[in-house]
Amino acid sequence: MTVISTLYPKEEKIKRLRLALILTATGMVLEFLGGIISRSLSLISDAGHMFTHLFALATSYFAIILSLQPVTKRRTYGLYRAEVLAAFINGIILIFVSFYLISQSISRFINPREIKIMEMLFISGIGLTINGITTGLLAKVSSGDINIRSAFLHELGDMLSSIAVVITGIIIFFTKRYIFDPLLSFFICALILIWSIRLIWDSTVILLESVPKDLDIDLVAKTIKEEIPGIYEVHHIHAWTIASSIYALTCHVVVEDCQISKANEILGKINNLVREKFHIGHTNIQFECLLKKEA
């Protein structure tokens, strides 16, 4: 099986995820303690938010570790799908977290509570700095990897949540209106909910082995037929995603009766073509002989 290399090697992703885990755990503890001291629901909620992100980062981290395991006779594709499953689980977790924070926001909206503004601003500033660093760490390696992207979305959501806390603290400091706290939290929860649904949808599409959204199988068949001499028809074509950026393709190709060496030459051209134009790294091509009509 030919696997297309991603922009960043998995070793680099593991290193960045490990650092993000340490930073997120530190920020979670600080925000939880700060929330208790300042009596800020935003900080406590954000700490709970960071706890779920800590779990999400750990899930993504171990998913990559599993994907590095060698293939076996029982798992012929290895454990690449582990990262897709992790993304699916992370998306579901995000939905539950969003609904919990929304319920807390509604409760605090009905019954606003006074909070210690300076303590809240100090701790939230530290949390925002940590979230900004971890988001930046994962942003550079999230492209083309649904597992890392799920962890990145967790961190991005947490960073936005921290920004909301800081903005809330500043507004309350000048206006003394504590109702802004649940209002901003509710808005952030709505954004996270949208992202989590999108993440679940993308991972579900892969798990159901649907055709990748950026791949047109009719165009693939047409390109193979038109650009490679000796091919008369391409049919029974199937395409799916094994894992992030790893596409697979099976199809039947009709050629003239020829030697095996000639068929291997055509096969090589097909593999090179679909890899370069459609980023398909794994193929299973079945040749069929063109039936000549008898005179």
What does this entry look like structurally?
The chain has eight helices and three strands; from the N terminus they run αααααααββαβ. The protein is mainly alpha-helical and 295 residues long. It has two domains: 10-207, Cation efflux protein transmembrane domain (Alpha-lytic protease prodomain-like, Up-down Bundle); 217-289, Cation efflux protein, cytoplasmic domain (Alpha-Beta Plaits). Strands 1-2-3 form a three-stranded mixed β-sheet. α4 packs antiparallel against α5 and α5 (146-175) packs antiparallel against α6 (180-207). The chain starts with 9 loop residues before the first helix and ends in a 6-residue tail after the last strand.
Percent in strands = 5-15%
Strand order of the largest sheet: 1-2-3
- Say what oligomer this is: single chain
Mean pLDDT: 81
Helix-residue proportion: 55-70%
DSSP strand tally: 3
Summary of the model, kept short:
By secondary structure, the protein is mainly α.
